[in-house]
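This part of the workshop introduces the protein records we will be handling. A record pairs a protein's sequence with a compact description of its fold. Comparing a sequence with its tokens is the quickest way to learn the format. To make this concrete, we reproduce a full record directly below:
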Amino acid sequence: MPLVALTGGIASGKSTIARRLAEHGAVVVDADAIVRFVQAPGSPVLAAIADEFGGDVILADGTLDRAALAGRVFGHPDRVARLNAIVHPAVRAESHRRFEEAFAGDPESVVVYDVPLLAEARADDAWDRVVVAHAPAAERAARLVALRGMTQAEADARIASQASDEERLRLADVVIDTSGTVEDTLRQVDALWTELHPRP
């Protein structure tokens, strides 16, 4: 019943890896989806965000104005730290609830936590494996420009705001090199699955 943390910088191909593991039968728990869940309208987390950063970060329909909040905290490490202190404990609790639910449903499950901010927030948790999706920063920036319409400056700023490649790689038990073709990446994921879930 391995519990696997899957991480990688923005545009690293992490989602491709998560999808392939899910196709093989892994239970993928998405940290970003949990963040949205704990910040749902009426939640204690959303109320705390509004108290800390102003009621105008809440839209008329009661949902979080993510762009407004990002504009308020991006580039301000102290504000990011305050936001993380609100959000991360709730995300941690909900993720553990989902892990336990998956293992209760099938003790032989392979549970994969798809978590962009592992190095920043969850590095010391008790993972059976840490898998890092890795491509050089310059290549990831080029993907952000080509696929997400960012300027070069925007792409570089997004990458610089995250943990460095060195910080992530220091945590890795397994590195999936995503700098080649998608087929190359999937072959590496298939080999990882064979290791995680060997056939009896």
